């Protein structure tokens, strides 16, 4: 059974940092594309950072230079290092797996077929 479990969210002041983790089970993390999405109240779910099966990483313009996605295949864990956080980064953050997709890294929600339950990130003073 495929499972994704996020952790690491919380309350942080503007300019601060957080590292989110997503423990994956039921499939080989090394062989599949993964993505972090976020959804703020009243807004749609947007992809912010993805790491492809083979081809590297891709970021939304809003987080480029501030967020870094990585994964540890031995620990079967996906990470999102978030630095220089802004109030606009406040959202529920989800990790997602694209188990049937073999293309380049994509932030397109439709390509991801497994989702975690999310972890809340709040950026406020």
Describe this structure in words.
With about 120 residues, the chain is mainly beta. The chain is about 0% helix and about 45% strand. It is built from no helices and eleven strands. The chain has strands spanning about 5, 10, 20-25, 35-40, 45-50, 55-60, 65-70, 75-80, 90-100, 115, 120-125. The strands form two sheets. Strands 2, 4, 5, 6, 9, 10 and 11 form a seven-stranded mixed sheet that branches. Strand 4 and strand 5 (about 45-50) form a beta hairpin. The mean pLDDT is about 95.
Topology:
Elements: E1 3-7, E2 10-12, E3 18-25, E4 33-39, E5 46-51, E6 57-59, E7 67-72, E8 77-82, E9 91-98, E10 114-115, E11 119-123
Parallel strand pairs: 2-11
Antiparallel strand pairs: 1-3, 3-8, 4-5, 4-9, 5-6, 7-8, 9-10, 9-11
Short description, anyone?
By secondary structure, this protein is mainly β. Helix content is 0%, strand content 47%.
Count of runs of 4 or more consecutive helical residues:
0
The portion of residues forming beta strands comes to over 45%
The chain-level mean pLDDT equals 95
Radius of gyration: 13 Å
| N- to C-terminal distance | 40 Å
Describe the oligomeric state of these chains in a short phrase: single chain
Report the strand count. Answer: 11
Poorly predicted sequence stretches spanning 5 or more consecutive residues: none
> Class by helix and strand content?
mainly beta
State the main characteristics.
mainly beta; 4-stranded antiparallel sheet; 7-stranded mixed sheet; 125 residues; 0% helix
